[in-house]
Amino acid sequence: MISLPSNTKFKVKIKTANFKIEFKDATREQAEKIVDGIVALFVEDKFVQESYDSIKGNNFGFCSISNSGNEFSVSAYLPEHVVNKEKTISCGSRISQGRATAGVNEDCWEQRGPNKCCSYCGSASFEDFMSIADKVIAGEKDYGIEKTDKGYKFYIQQPQVPNAGFGAIKFYTWHAPEGLSKEELKLINEKLHKAITITHEKFMKRLTKTINNET
Question: What gap in Å lies between CA 9 and CA 209, rounded to an integer?
Answer without folding.
Answer: 34
